[in-house]
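Write out the 3D structure for:
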Amino acid sequence: MSLLSAKEIMEIIPHRQPFMLLDTVEELTPGVKAVAKKCVSYNEPYFQGHFPKEPVMPGVLIIEALAQAGAVAILSLEENKGKTAYFAAIQSAKFKRKVIPGDVLMLETEIIKQKGSIGIGKATALVDGKIAVQAELTFAISDNQ
């Protein structure tokens, strides 16, 4: 059973369809780590053009999904509720395998460093236990004021 449903995720992060890329959160340690799941469906709107004869989930959207998992982790802290986490940098992104319709993408983002409103997450996306994407994501937390 999942820890957080899509509805509960939307109470933490501001993303909405069609740009919310998490289906559930399976594991959560606020401020430290989140493991989320994305069931990749052939009905995803981006497959209409990427690529019609060989659908592949765009790597930038996998990175975005990893960032959303990290945002769930960091914005789950009481002092960050209602805030937004923005990209500040992407380092060392490596794409190791294609993600295609029917894949279940497991998205693991661990916050490895934070100073003030800036932090870094170590992010790994897996399919069937095999690494699809790895990256280091830098984020900035804003109170939207």
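The CA atoms of residues 28 and 34 lie 5 Å apart.
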